[in-house]
Dihydrolipoyl dehydrogenase
Amino acid sequence: MTNSYDVIVIGAGPAGYVGAIRCAQLGMRVAVIDEYRRKDGEPSLGGTCLNVGCIPSKALLDSSEHYHRVQSQLGQHGIKVDGVSLDVPQMIKRKDKVVADLTGGIKQLFKANDIEWLQGHGKLLADRQVAFKPHKGKEKTLSADNIILATGSRPIEIGAAPLTGDRIVSSTGAQEFQEVPKRLGVIGAGVIGLEMGSVWNRLGSKVVLLEAQDSFLTPVDQQVAREAKKLFAKQGLEIRQGCRVTETRDGKNISVHYEDKDGKQHMQVDRLVVSVGRRPNTDGLASEDADLLTDERGFVHVNDYCETNIPGVYAVGDVVRGPMLAHKGSEEGVMVAERMAGHAGHVNYDTIPWVIYTDPEIAWVGRTEAQLKAAGIPHRSGTFGFGATGRARAMDQSDGMVKIIAHAETDRILGVHMVGPQTSELIAEATLAMEYEASAEDLARTIHAHPTLSEAVHEAALAVDKRAIHKAN
């Protein structure tokens, strides 16, 4: 290990490790400082996303979906299965292997790109220096021409429901249950709460989600959100809105006390997941004399190109403004690396796709109808249900819809919103169309293979002009 680098990255999540790799590709000498350690104490690359976030949750969602289909959906296909049993520890073991394989892959990428992995805590000092405290050994001072801050985020904790480690848990703990809780409470019906609730609901839990807001999935177009809520209710997910949790008592059972429009309420559960959002992980990130500018919530202040108020110091991912999405952070890491090298890197924040990996999946890109109305932008929209597509019917996954919103005068696509099968994949076409500033007519005149789920996107584009073929307009 040397003491001087072209770039030091603090944090090895999707924003940090991707930025580091791009810097190395552009010929820079790079070191990455990361303090994350697995539950067994061993260091691991990939940050929250790969270790306890995006990847393990998707592995569990996939496993639980297989179990649910075997239990309740294969019979109508003429497939009879007897003696189905559930091995939760094996499910968790598989999830851990998926995580280990992917984090190990990042380690190999670091090796291939000659990136130095420094295991421990990094703190920004003045004059583009970094204090590095390894997990084992003495603290050292390092320096670099450029520094990227990419320390990610952590779950928000609330005083009314302090975490206990095994019974009242964050989303991380919800990925480690060794048995299916009979009754599971989830505080927060956002992206993470819905995904974790879906996992255990499919496996047999009675799941109740307590949401503080009166509206469901506020960032989602409300026509799509209403459809999604209706479908979740059919699955047995109980979503109670306008609920403010005031106290939890952990005894033989967990008693959750909350208030809603009807007054004081309470319920008893066997496990409780606290999923009320995330906050930037910036405590202890910079010394006072570094003069790093942050806001009252702990986000690092940056400009459109992720430059902080300190020359040569950048911040990307969950520690800066914008959605806390892995792919957003990764693209910011690439942008910063390319701008360091004198290239014209940029991120189009208007075309960042979002996905909620429930079943059906929810995906969207661009603005909602409510946002366009508030901004006074003239628009029109077209919708099309998956139930009218042959492929969705053949798959027995015909719930949901696609909605395309276009400018009323120019026909430029302003937003695309979906709930249905594999919308996490279908949203890519919409994102690309918006990146190219396509019109609804462009999508409508693009030939889509038959039979495919993507035909719903095609028909929704036709519906903007009230000429969908397989729908009475």
Summary: Residues 351-464 form a domain with the Enolase-like; domain 1 fold (CATH 3.30.390.30). The two ends are 67 Å apart (CA to CA). The CA atoms of residues 384 and 460 lie 5 Å apart.
